[in-house]
Amino acid sequence: MSSLLAGLPVDVPGTTINRLCGSAWMPSSPPPARSVRAKAELMVAGGVESMSRAPFVAPKAEAAFSRNAEIHDTTIGWRFVNPLMEKLHGTDTMPRTSQNVADDFGKVWF
């Protein structure tokens, strides 16, 4: 999402590493990653940690010391949609995306 919002074209390769805490650094150093790094002209990396709110999300408080404790399950779908991301690329869930692919290319049965 960050690369798309930064304006990089959709054909620029990228990956999401969903690991917890410091173990997230490990996938960036195995031999295949080192090989890619040796050939790349530019690589961008970033991250965010918010394990206190996962896998459920809690909206920001509307006021200081609010006692409103809403919790939302985000197992399927976005709860807090980034308007720019939705405008530029849509925010379909994985199930919706699979249906879009089936509609566009015909149903594939495995």
Quick structural overview:
With 110 residues, the chain is mainly alpha-helical. It has helices spanning 2-5, 31-39, 83-89, 94-105; strands spanning 56-57, 72-73. It has a domain at 1-49.
Describe this structure in words.
The chain is mainly α and 110 residues long. It has a domain at 1-49. Helix content is 29%, strand content 4%. It is built from four helices and two strands. Strands 1-2 form a two-stranded antiparallel sheet. The mean pLDDT is 75.
Q: How large is the radius of gyration? A: 18 Å
How are the strands of the largest sheet arranged?
1-2
Beta-strand percentage range? under 5%
In N-to-C order, the SSE pattern is: HHEEHH
Note poorly predicted spans.
Answer: none
How can the largest sheet be summarized? 2 strands, antiparallel
What percent of residues adopt helix (DSSP H or I)?
25-40%
Distance between the termini: 29 Å
- Would you tell me the structural class of the helices and strands? mainly alpha
Mean pLDDT: 75
Please give the number of β-strands. Answer: 2
- Please work out how many helical segments DSSP would assign: 4
Outline: extended
